[in-house]
Amino acid sequence: MEKIPVRTAGGGYEVHVGRDILASVLPSLLRRLAPRRVAVVSHPEIMELHGERLRGILREAVPGEEATAFFLFPAGEEEKNLGTLERGYRALLKADITREDVLLAFGGGVVGDLAGFLAATYLRGIRYLQVPTTLMAMVDSSIGGKVGVDMPEGKNLVGAFHQPAAVLADVALLATLPGRELRSGLAEVAKYGFLYEEAILAEMEGWREGIPGEDYDFSSLVAACAAHKARVVSADERDLSGERALLNYGHTFGHALEAATSYRALRHGEAVALGMIMASRLAELAGMARVNLMERHLQVLSPLLGEARLPRDLAADHVLAHMQRDKKKGEALRFVLLEEWQVPVLVDSPPRGLVERAVEEVLGETAPA
C-alpha cells in the first residue's frame, strides 16, 4: 500500500492506495476519527455490489445498533443537483448526525462531489472520508476537496472547498466496474500523461483496444496519478495560482459537451476525452503546438470512446453556447492547451472562430457511423 500526503491550509490528509485494503484501512481511519455514527452516501447499485462487505466492516469499526445510516440516491450526473442535496440534508437530520460524526462517500465522482458538499454545509461542516469505487474518482475527483452540485446552467456552479479526512482507494473495487466506466476513468489517467508523465502515455499505448488485461493491477497507475493530483492540490488548494487550473485539461470543452447533451449521452470521462482532442486541435490551429498533438490524442483516446453516442445533430455553436454558460462569473473563457507533451499552458479567450473550428472538426472526426 502507498500513502500519498496532501498538505493544504484546509487540512492535511493521506491518500491510501492499494489492493484489498478496505477491510484493514477503513477501521483504522474510523478509530482515529472516533465518530458516534457514520453516514454512508452512495448509489443503490454500488451497495448491491459492495454493501454487505461495507456494512460488516462498519459494524466492527463503529459498534452499535444505529451506528450506521445510509443516504442512497440514483446514479447519473443529472442527479447531482440541489434537489438531491436537500434530500441528503433531511436524511442526515433524520439519522441524528452531529458534528462529531463522519460522512462516508462510497462511490464515483458524482457521489464524492455531492457527499463532500453535504459534509461541507451540513451543520456548517462535518468530517468526511472519500472511498472511491471508480477509477475516475480514485485518480481525480476524490482528491483535493472540490465538492459541489450542478445547475441547469452548468456543472459545479454551486460548491465549496472542503478537504476529506482521508481518501481510501482500494483498486480491488474496480473488478466490478463496467467496461464503459473503466474506459471513462482511463481518460482522466491519460490526462495526467498528457500534462505530466510520458510513462503513463507509453503504458496506455501498449494496451490492446485501449484497456489493460483482466489481471492488471491498477495500484501503481492510480498511485502515480494520485501523486500528481496531491502535489498540485498542495501547491494550489483553492485554484488561485493557476497550477490547479491545469488539471482542467479537456474540461472546458468536456463540460460544455455534457451540458449540450443533457448529461445523458456521455460519461464524464468520454466528454473529457473528446475535450482533450478538441484542445489538442485548438492548440494546432492557434499555432501553439510544437508537435503533432491531435494524432496522438486520437491514438490514445479513441479506444475509450467506443460506447459514446453523440447526437448526430449536435452543432458546434450549441456546444459553445454551453461553454459560455459554464464559465464562472467574471472569469475569462479559459483553456488548458499543450505546446508539446507535458508542457501545458493556460490560454484565456482564444479566438471564437478557432474554438468553433476545433469543435466542428472533432465532432466530424468522432461522429457515429
Largest sheet: 7 strands, mixed
**What spatial order of strands do you see in the largest sheet?**
1-2-9-6-5-3-4
How helical, in percent, are the residues? 40-55%
Spans with pLDDT under 50 lasting ≥5 residues? none
Distance between the termini: 44 Å
Query: Helix count?
Result: 13
Outline: globular
- Supply the helix-strand structural class: alpha/beta
Using brief descriptors, characterize the structure shown:
369 residues; alpha/beta; 13 helices; 11 strands; 46% helix
In short:
With 369 residues, the protein is an alpha/beta fold.
Task: Describe the fold and architecture.
The chain is an alpha/beta fold. It is built from 13 helices and eleven strands. It has helices spanning 22-33, 44-61, 82-94, 109-121, 135-141, 179-195, 198-205, 219-235, 251-260, 268-285, 293-301, 316-326, 352-366, and strands spanning 2-6, 13-18, 38-42, 68-72, 102-107, 127-132, 146-151, 154-161, 166-170, 334-340, 343-348. The strands form three sheets. A seven-stranded mixed beta sheet has the order 1-2-9-6-5-3-4, with helices on both faces. It has a two-stranded antiparallel ribbon with strand order 7-8. Helix 4 (109-121) links the parallel strand 5 and strand 6. Helix 1 (22-33) crosses helix 2 (44-61) and helix 12 (316-326) crosses helix 13. The termini are far apart.
